[in-house]
Amino acid sequence: MAQSTARTSKQSSNQKAPGKKTAGDKAAGNKAQALTYQDAGVSIDAGDEAVGSIKELARKTFTRGVRTQIGSFGAGFRLAGYRRPVLISSADGVGTKLKVAIAAGRHGTIGECLVNHCVNDIAVLGAQPLYFLDYFAMGKLNPKVAAAVIGGVARGCGANKCALIGGETAEMPGLYAAGDYDIAGFITGAVEEKKMITGAGIKEGDVLIGLPSTGLHTNGYSLARKLLFDVAGYKHDSHVPALGRTVADELLAVHRSYLKPITALAKAGILKGAAHITGGGITDNTPRILPKGLGVEIRVASWTVPPVFELLRELGNVPLDDWRRTFNLGAGMILAVSAKKAESAVKLLKRGGEKPWLIGDVVRVKAGRPRVIYT
């Protein structure tokens, strides 16, 4: 595993004017002051402490394919069990959901959100996750915060049977404000070439099935924070009757994984296409899986939009089109199946504990017309 503490210092060079002494020239005649990396704001000891705790978390996620030990410069993974494998990769972050976690002092679920988001992005193509790498950076490294965040990453990897085999823990004073941090994830999965789910076989008359989200997931937080904190004046621990819980509880709900239901439909030979509803909402994400000339009709009454989205729309008088393009509105995944197999798909999903909705249909649209029609 290549998990380490970044030891990067920003250096600058100044060109001196001819014949004029610079501060550097003057200092050269004086005894040099002893400076350490700690004096520059980077604690090697804190980095070692953070990485030490992360190593054990990562080791618990290892699968049979892992071929390198923790501490190596690179991470190795042996791909087995495929005839003609196609590797599917994705990289993502969690946006300004981080600001909520930092302000609320609750760091344990952010890593899970990151992993599940990345898993969903490759699962829609039929891929099973193989391994995951993370990037975690702070201005001043706090080992406890780092362990909490990466602990969530490890938990998410374990739940999706994905090995956390590498990453980077960076301490960069001057780049991040006190207490702030950033995190990004990189995932690789595999699928047999003949079993890739591309949406190419989707046809007019096919049916769309929606699966519930657990809230905002990892999109729309800049608008949500502005509305809830600036406009409404809520605090993170404010209990909101319309939500039935605190603001922090609502906004930090874990972005769920859809790997199991997607895999179940794919194994049954039912699934034609899948769209992860992230930034852009149903409006922008559904067309990404549709062949040319096709669009979808979405029946807005086919599911109940969760209270948080209705509250946000009310607080900001958000235009309907913008609302639909900013949030998932409670539908975090849309699956395309043939009309003949829609009933079987719904039964299979329900057996797996899902609560699916028949959310719309695939229709033919003329060039230049909207590809998503809300009815």
List keywords for this structure.
single chain; 375 residues; alpha+beta; 60s Ribosomal Protein L30, Chain: A; 2 domains; six-stranded mixed sheet; five-stranded mixed sheet; 21% strand
Count of individual domains: 2
Give the overall average pLDDT. Answer: 89
Question: Mind summarizing the main beta sheet?
Answer: 6 strands, mixed
Over all CA atoms, what is the radius of gyration? 24 Å
Q: What is the number of helical segments per DSSP (H or I, 4+ residues)?
A: 12
Order of helices and strands: EHHEHHEHEEEHEEHHEHEHHEHEE
Report on the architecture of this protein.
It is a single chain. This protein has 375 residues and is of the alpha+beta class. The chain folds into two domains: 152 residues, PurM-like, N-terminal domain (60s Ribosomal Protein L30, Chain: A, 2-Layer Sandwich); 168 residues, Phosphoribosyl-aminoimidazole Synthetase, Chain A, domain 2, CATH 3.90.650.10. 31% of the residues lie in helices and 21% in strands. It is built from twelve helices and 13 strands. The protein has a six-stranded mixed β-sheet with strand order 9-11-6-12-10-13. The protein has a five-stranded mixed β-sheet with strand order 1-4-3-5-2. Strands 7-8 form a two-stranded antiparallel ribbon. The radius of gyration is 24 Å and the shape is globular. The N terminus is likely disordered.
